[in-house]
Design goal:
heterodimer; A: 117 residues; mainly beta; 7-stranded mixed sheet; 4-stranded antiparallel sheet; 0% helix; globular; B: 105 residues
């Protein structure tokens, strides 16, 4: 069965770029869409954006200027970059299968990223 | 599109019928999903397209609604159901509701 695993640094300094990867096992990444979501400590879920299976990308308008989502089919990975981070970007970051008109049916376990000097 | 869930929290007993409401700021047809999240865990999909039960999810969970008004119903609350529930619209971009925490009474 398909499984997702997020990875990346647990600590990022303010103004730097946060980079995360989501490795997909048990299925080919280019046959589905992949969404990134984050959850600040003790708060709700925030949709970041998705990489549609066809190659199009859609971002949350409130984050569009600072985020980039990509796909590497050779590594079966989706990647997320968030530029110019502040403490407000401290959160658990999740990747999930789905996007567009598909609900998010498989989620990774999430990875905690703290922004601090 | 803004998603507003109510209530934000509720206390209920095992066996109770629980209803959670989600309202969209504009019509989203039936492009709505419901998720369950337990502390320290990733959300789990329960319902998609407003009323379709995800495979493996107990039949005590059901969803209904269209347009701007949606409900998640748990027909008989079980000990494993104490968690936070989120709605998500995926009609235009995507937005989550603020969550409803279901606690033990």
């Amino acid at each position: 069965q398909v499984q997702l695993q997020e990875s990346g640094p647990g600590l990022v300094k303010p103004s730097e770029t946060l980079s995360l990867s989501c490795t997909v096992s048990g299925g080919a990444i280019d046959t589905f869409s992949w969404t990134w979501i984050r959850q600040p400590p003790g708060k709700g879920l925030e949709w970041i954006g998705y990489f549609y299976y066809s190659g199009s990308i859609l971002y949350n308008p409130s984050l569009r200027s600072r985020v980039a989502i990509s796909r590497d089919t050779s590594k079966n990975q989706s990647s997320l970059k968030v530029a110019s981070v502040t403490t407000a970007d401290t959160a658990v970051y999740y990747c999930a299968r789905g996007g567009g008109l598909d609900a998010l049916d498989i989620w990774g376990q999430g990875t905690m990223v703290a922004v601090s000097s | 599109i803004q998603m507003t869930q109510s209530p934000s929290a509720l206390s209920a007993s095992v066996g109770d019928r629980v209803i959670i409401t989600c309202r969209a700021s504009e019509s989203i047809s039936t492009w709505l999903a419901w998720y369950q999240q337990k502390p320290g865990k990733a959300p789990k999909l329960l319902i998609y397209k407003a009323s379709s039960l995800e495979s493996g999810v107990p039949s005590r969970f059901s969803g209904s609604g269209s347009g701007t008004e949606f409900t998640l119903t748990i027909s008989s609350l079980q000990p494993d159901d104490f968690a936070t529930y989120y709605c998500q619209q995926y009609n235009s971009f995507s937005t989550f509701g603020q969550g409803t925490k279901v606690e033990i009474k």
